[in-house]
């Protein structure tokens, strides 16, 4: 734990470190719930400021700011969606009580997301399939695990996904689950693609376009898959939906592209972005905890929420 | 076994027999009507105490029938629609008429229990349900007419239209007939698969499937029929439809698919080959005796047509682009029902 961290950042880090399987988004939400539990705010404005500060603090860490932003935005939106008879109460503590209840249901539902995704994804796996995946994704891992548990045998090809070799972690994890897997070079995706029956990737964030922001290299994989008519499936929890509409790679917010510590150095010219944006035309379906959605449906979901 | 139980069994048996006794598959509107009538009888005959029981029994029948006839997705569609109607009746009765089933992201902050289904007056609900089922039959009945009514907005003078499987689709036939009534002067290429004999009629020029490539250059619009439409805008078309659509794409000819609402299937089929039956092939007996076990005759019945090849669906309400099918699904189905399949 880095010294000098505020209390919120400490809670956030601790939550992620004690349970390595926890998603960044869920940890961020739990941190906000912690703020909600301990708040002494007496007006809604004060309380929103407190939440806002907590989010700002979390964004200074090196965890995916796409996930933190989408999850916290949804949380703040939801807990404040109260019926009129509650918002009109003069005693703010009663309103806070309502918020807390909302928070608990929200966290409970979000923590079930991954198992729901595994359930929806299961029919897509078949015996003797060759599956290509890129980088390390907890959602993809749990879906593959569940399908394998059901007795479906398939071979997973994992790209190294440099610069941080997160694919290597994925490879190790799959191996320890007893799933047949091969670690391959990032540059051999084109060579391998003709043998694949499907590509599955996770996402750091799902954009309003229906496209995704994910570990750099996802775009390359998806374009090759599209060219060779291999279906690309994205597995992502709905707390990763972000109200952002990138038009091209340049248009991705800088905070999404670089870790906070890199931005702090103030010399982006010599840095390498961590993520890229894959437009919806390269994706077939998004498997989310809300069900299986075509990419075009994501925008509609977000519009329903943020208007 | 009680008296009521056998009656239900008989109903099921008769339904399956009626579906199978024809050598030619009846039209999809006939099948959907049969399903509705079957469900109506089931609802009347079965003694259920709560709405939850009613839904459970409907889904049981759906699963049974779809196991018997796995390729008829219409059966499940209609059952799901009926169960949505039952839920609507309950909501109406409990006074929360405008409850939104598809809260999608909003469901994240709601308690996760399934919809509350308290014991209510089943007699009243049953009566209302039968009434709304009757409305559904009227809607299905008028599908062909309302799709045909749009033909004069889609086909104009000097158009050259290519159609496929005209002889099996009454809807497509009446669609074309309607424009002729409007005195539109246009030409029709009727594509006939290799395995079928030519059927002559007075307003189409028949071409074979292998002539599509040369004739598509003259064509201005392609109209196809479909078996099922999926939420991502892809659809199952009669085998051969995909090659016509690919050819049309190459020459930028718009492809329209006629799709009445009961063909919208609310779930995805991950492996369309699983429900792709082979058409019955005629093989001389001598040949089949010699080749048994060595030769497999492949003649799949459907093609899965990706949404990128489809310009618009002509549904009974209006023309819709493939990306909007997902929205349309929300009008007819309840998410909790879909999750069961």
TrEMBL record, chain A:
It is found in: Cytoplasm, Cytosol. Pfam families: IF-2B. It comes from the Eukaryota. GO terms for cellular component: cytosol; eukaryotic translation initiation factor 2B complex. SUPFAM superfamilies: NagB/RpiA/CoA transferase-like. GO terms for molecular function: guanyl-nucleotide exchange factor activity; translation initiation factor activity. InterPro entries: eIF2B_alpha/beta/delta, elF-2B_alpha_N, IF-2B-related, IF_2B-like_C, NagB/RpiA_transferase-like. Belongs to the eIF-2B alpha/beta/delta subunits family. PANTHER family: TRANSLATION INITIATION FACTOR EIF-2B SUBUNIT ALPHA. This is Translation initiation factor eIF2B subunit alpha. It comes from Caenorhabditis angaria.
TrEMBL record, chain B:
InterPro entries: eIF2B_beta_subunit, IF-2B-related, IF_2B-like_C, NagB/RpiA_transferase-like. It is found in: Cytoplasm, Cytosol. The keyword Protein biosynthesis applies. It comes from the Eukaryota. GO terms for molecular function: guanyl-nucleotide exchange factor activity; translation initiation factor activity. Its main location: cytoplasm. Keywords: Cytoplasm, Initiation factor, Protein biosynthesis. GO terms for cellular component: cytosol; eukaryotic translation initiation factor 2B complex. Component of the translation initiation factor 2B (eIF2B) complex which is a heterodecamer of two sets of five different subunits: alpha, beta, gamma, delta and epsilon. Subunits alpha, beta and delta comprise a regulatory subcomplex and subunits epsilon and gamma comprise a catalytic subcomplex. Within the complex, the hexameric regulatory complex resides at the center, with the two heterodimeric catalytic subcomplexes bound on opposite sides. PANTHER family: TRANSLATION INITIATION FACTOR EIF-2B SUBUNIT BETA (PTHR45859:SF1). Belongs to the eIF-2B alpha/beta/delta subunits family. This is Translation initiation factor eIF2B subunit beta. It comes from Caenorhabditis angaria. The lineage of its organism: Eukaryota, Metazoa, Ecdysozoa, Nematoda, Chromadorea.
